[in-house]
């Protein structure tokens, strides 16, 4: 005895089978419901196919965008800035820790501040030194870095970046740092592949220092 294709109830044999029984259904309602279910299934399959296509397109678009960004110098600088600045803040804190000193701002000498990576020669003035350790030291962010544009020369209450270098490293070493930064004015040709490699090295350095602090 056959079973209904939709509800799986057994279909009794009849001398003259109706149309729906010949088609494999126990009644007209089951035949209609089965057809409706098949139609919904088709719609759902079509939706799934469409969704997969949209997702594949988005994935391809994201991949294309990543590849475009990788080769874009401005995008690379944005990524490098975040990683380099964090590394330099950590390196500076480690420098003070090894000497059993409390970290202080290179420009104002204050301690326990909102630390950042302060540039002696600004990125706008000498962009070639933006990722140079000789040009970057621990600085308070809000007051000296942002409020006084790096506080290079100092004011009535602060010594300034230049004097801070001499005070921190001594006259001879401090003078060498200043001369290095002031003499290295050549333009630098940025290469996105090189910048990616830098970030890998800096990230590894960050992990290394974090274990020591």
Topology:
Elements: H1 19-22, H2 28-70, H3 73-98, E1 115-119, E2 136-140, H4 141-147, H5 161-169, H6 171-183, H7 192-210
Helix pairs in contact: 3-7, 5-6
Task: Describe the protein's architecture and organization.
The chain is mainly alpha-helical. It folds into two domains: about 20-65; about 80-210, no CATH class. Helix content is about 55%, strand content about 5%. The protein has helices spanning about 20, 30-70, 75-100, 140-145, 160-170, 170-185, 190-210, and strands at about 115-120, 135-140. Strands 1-2 form a two-stranded antiparallel ribbon. The radius of gyration is 35 Å and the shape is rod-shaped.
Task: Kindly list the characteristics that best describe this protein.
mainly alpha; two-stranded antiparallel sheet; 213 residues; rod-shaped
- Indicate the structural class: mainly alpha
| Mean pLDDT over all positions | 88
Q: How much helix, percentage-wise, in residues?
A: 55-70%
Strand content: under 5%
Largest sheet: 2 strands, antiparallel
Low-confidence stretches: none
Strand order of the largest sheet: 1-2
Distance between the termini: 80 Å
| Overall tally of domains | 2
Q: How many E strands?
A: 2
């Amino acid at each position: 005895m056959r079973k209904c294709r939709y509800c799986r109830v057994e279909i009794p044999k009849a001398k003259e089978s109706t149309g729906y029984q010949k088609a494999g259904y126990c009644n007209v309602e089951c035949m209609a419901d089965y057809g409706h279910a098949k139609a919904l299934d088709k719609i759902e399959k079509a939706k799934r196919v469409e969704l997969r296509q949209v997702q594949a397109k988005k994935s391809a678009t994201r991949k294309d965008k990543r590849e475009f960004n990788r080769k874009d110098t401005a995008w690379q600088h944005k990524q490098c800035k975040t990683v380099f600045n964090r590394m330099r803040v950590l390196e500076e804190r480690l420098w003070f820790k090894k000497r059993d000193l409390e970290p202080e701002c290179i420009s104002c000498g204050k301690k326990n501040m909102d630390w950042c990576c302060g540039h002696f020669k600004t990125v706008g003035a000498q962009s070639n030194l933006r990722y140079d350790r000789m040009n970057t030291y621990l600085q308070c962010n809000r007051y000296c870095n942002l409020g006084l544009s790096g506080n290079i020369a100092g004011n009535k209450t602060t010594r300034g970046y230049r004097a801070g270098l001499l005070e921190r490293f001594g006259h001879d070493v401090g003078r060498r740092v200043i001369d290095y930064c002031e003499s290295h004015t050549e333009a630098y040709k940025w290469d996105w592949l090189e910048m990616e490699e830098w970030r890998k090295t800096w990230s590894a350095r960050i992990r290394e220092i974090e274990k020591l602090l």
